[in-house]
Amino acid sequence: MKNKWKIRTIISLLLVFMVSFLMIGCEIEGDISDRKNTKENNLTVSFIDVGQADSILIQCGNETMLIDAGNNDDGKIVENHLKKMNVSKIDYLVGTHPHEDHIGPLDYVIDNFKIGTVYMPKKTATTKTFKDVVNSLNKKGLKPIAPKVGDTFNIGSAKATIIAPAEDYKDANESSIVIKIQYEDTSFLFAGDAETLSENDMLKSGTDLSADVLKLAHHGSRTSSSDKFLDKVNPKYAIISCEKNNDYGHPHIETINKMKNRNIIVHRTDEEGTIIATSDGKNISFDKNNGTYNEGAKVNLEQNDEKDIEADSISENKNENDMKVYFTEKGKSYHLDKDCSSLKNSKNILMGTLKEAKDKGKSDPCDRCAL
């Protein structure tokens, strides 16, 4: 009888132990799952160190956006970072404007990753860099969209809004696509190379420009980040993407002083390398210590001070009206590629300057080879 009682007692204790173990296991698993979901739902923004250039990776949930890809030689740098961040598909690819230090290896990215939607401004260029991007898009059957101010789309649970350009400005920098990302109570504004003309139009639009993090336009140049614009954005953090000892003296002391006087915390790739910001929807943290308020080294600044633009900007924009284009007698578009598929049925393809084409009413860029 005693033996039976002992056996029952032992069995009861074992059952209690097993139930307790299972309950604790479920709680631990639930806690791990919650932490995993929290991590996956965070917004992560990588400001990739591509020297005197821009490239920004945005991830939220299972979706990604890449804004620009640096200089022509930066393809591997961008690819390696994307792979490090477990990116195999880019849901939204943005080429802010057709300068080599922004779209340089965009063709390489298109060739090596699955691509969803592509955004590029109407502004075009006759450079090999731009044509390489167009060719890679055509090979994959991708048609870039020229976004309109106010357009929105979602990256995971984050909302992206197109803030600029308001028009197709003569200057490529001014035509930069500017995007605001809102993730719960936190926000980021990515300003491309937009300068004061575009900034003024953004201010006039009445759009909510406020953001916790501002990617300073044009690598911290004095030609961007006007006082009124900064007052409206009112960022807590500013990101400067530039190269150490660059030829332009970026970031300029005027811009740096504006950051310092407003107590805006600065992060900069020339000092910190690649910078990763993470938002949990309430707070934003950075993986690097704060940058300094030091101006850029004045290497060759005398000869570049009055022409504060990238080297490729000089060749691309000497006179846009003189760029060579193709068009037809009855068509309304101009083309950068004589072999464009939309011209395959045209028997008489004319060639001339962009000005000549526009004078003949061919003012629309071809959506296959010139967007």
From TrEMBL:
Gene3D superfamilies the record matches: Ribonuclease Z/Hydroxyacylglutathione hydrolase-like
InterPro entries assigned to the protein according to its UniProt record, in alphabetical order: ComA-like_MBL, Competence_DNA_uptake, Metallo-B-lactamas, RibonucZ/Hydroxyglut_hydro
Domain Metallo-beta-lactamase: 52-244
Family matches, as SMART domains: Lactamase_B
PANTHER family xrefs: BETA-LACTAMASE DOMAIN PROTEIN (PTHR30619:SF7), DNA INTERNALIZATION/COMPETENCE PROTEIN COMEC/REC2 (PTHR30619)
UniProtKB keywords: Hydrolase
GO molecular function, one term: hydrolase activity
Organism per entry: Clostridium senegalense
UniProt name for this protein: MBL fold metallo-hydrolase
Keyword Hydrolase (UniProt): yes
Domain of life: Bacteria
